[in-house]
Amino acid sequence: MMEIFLIKLIIAHLIGDFFFQPTSWVKDKERKKLKSGKLYLHVLVHIVLIFIVFLSFNVWKVALSIGVLHLIIDALKSLFQTKKNARILFFIDQVLHFSSIVLVWHIFYNGYLDISFINNTRNWILISGALFLTMPTSIIMKVIIAKWLPESDDESPKSLQNAGKYIGILERALIFVFILTNHFEAVGFLLAAKSIFRFGDLKEAHDLKLTEYVLIGTLLSFGIAIVVSLIIMGLVA
Q1: Three-state helix/strand/coil letters over 113-169
Q2: Which residues contact 57 (CB under 8 A, 6 or more apart)?
Q3: Segments forming the whole domain that contains residue 36
Q4: Rg of the chain over CA atoms, in angstroms?
Q5: Is there a single domain that holds both residue 16 and residue 60?
Q6: What is the pLDDT of residue 153?
Q7: Count of alpha carbons within 13 Å of 223, Cβ hemisphere only?
Q8: Cβ atoms 135, 203 nearer than 8 A
Q9: I need a surface site. Which of 45, 48, 81, 151 has the fewest CB within 10 A?
Q10: The model's pTM
């Protein structure tokens, strides 16, 4: 199967970028940019890994092509990266790397990706349900429980910025996956785990209003996620 070549190229990339690239190399590239010897050593590692995963030197054209593209992408990243855009550039960098791998695979192995799933109604229903449980649900919950938001005289932040919102999104995403894969018992474990983590904070706070606010938010988040997930499961069944 032609797909095995794509899988091997992806494995080589993952090993090269996440296993064989020490933090010291990353910092050296950020500091010296195109003058960094670690940049070129990193690209060489990727080329060697392709030879290793294919167990052949006949793929030198493939290895060289990916090496050149990898060098261009990493060089551009090093030139444009700042402290403010480092996070977004990391994801852009990976998207470009995987895109270049698919391009090389397509050119040298006549690879073809089946994207017929894009026109599948079932997939669009799943996507809509998953999206609804992210920001839309967070906004809906904020509107519902805003009147119960506990007032605090302490202006210093006690938690990470927007942490509660992202925790809620993650827990609803997990519930969505659990229910659609018929693992309803996992929802109970998730609720229990969150309760255990929250118990210490609520116990130390000695604030009944805060406790009630957290319970309302948690149960509302779980409730919406369960109802939406059941509706989506019924639609795609």
Answers
A1: CCCHHHHCHHHHHHHHHHHHCCHHHHHHHHHHHHHHCCCCCCCCCCCCCCHHHHHHH
A2: 51
A3: 3-109
A4: 24
A5: yes
A6: 47
A7: 8
A8: no
A9: 151
A10: 0.78
93 and 28, same domain (yes or no): yes
Q: Give the residue from 234, 121, 232, 216 showing the smallest Cα distance to 176.
A: 232
pLDDT tens, residue by residue, 114-152: 778 788 999 999 999 999 999 999 999 989 888 777 665
Per-residue CA distances from 85 to 21, 31, 32, 88, 190 (Å): 21, 15, 18, 6, 34
Domain match, 210 and 127 both: yes
Shared-domain flag, residues 96 and 172: no
Structure token digits, residue 7: 């899988």
Does residue 53 sit in the same domain as residue 163?
no
Whole-Å CA distances, 151 to 148, 183, 220: 9, 38, 20
Same domain for 105 and 197, yes or no, is no
Give how many domains the chain has, as a whole number.
2
Is-contact 109 5, C-beta < 8 A? yes
Residue matched to tokens 């032609």: 2
Do residues 18 and 94 share a domain?
A: yes
